[in-house]
Amino acid sequence: MSQVTIYLQDNLISKLKKRAQLKKESLSKYITSILEKKEIDEWPEKYLSLCGSIKEDNFVRAHQGSYEQDVTRKEM
């Protein structure tokens, strides 16, 4: 298991310690459980709603050319 060092404000660490004690867990275990509940591998909320949200005429996809103009590849 890896170790991580973080710096927290005193008032936040006090709150975390109190909540960990109420749950009868170590501070490390309590913080780990909080992080595991968060979906940290997913895109931020409303991220995908930004797709297509820019409405400027000069913000367009660059021309990609045709398949025939692509580089020559070796057959496999």
Question: Can you walk through the features of this model?
Answer:
With 76 residues, the chain is mostly helical. It has a domain at 10-62. It has 2 helices and no strands. The protein has helices spanning 10-22, 27-37. α1 (10-22) crosses α2. It is elongated. The two termini are 43 Å apart. The mean pLDDT is 86.
Low-confidence stretches: none
Q: Could you tell me how far the N terminus lies from the C terminus, measured between alpha carbons in angstroms?
A: 43 Å
Structural class: mainly alpha
Helix share bin: 25-40%
Mean pLDDT: 86
Strand content: under 5%
Order of helices and strands: HH
How many DSSP helices? 2
How many strand units? Answer: 0
Largest sheet: none
Instruction: Work out the radius of gyration.
Output: 25 Å
Q: What's the overall geometry?
A: elongated
Annotation keywords:
mainly alpha, 2 helices, 76 residues, 32% helix
Summarize the helices and strands and which ones pair or pack:
Elements lengths: L9 H13 L4 H11 L39
Helix pairs in contact: 1-2
Q: Short description, anyone?
A:
This protein is an all-alpha fold and 76 residues long.
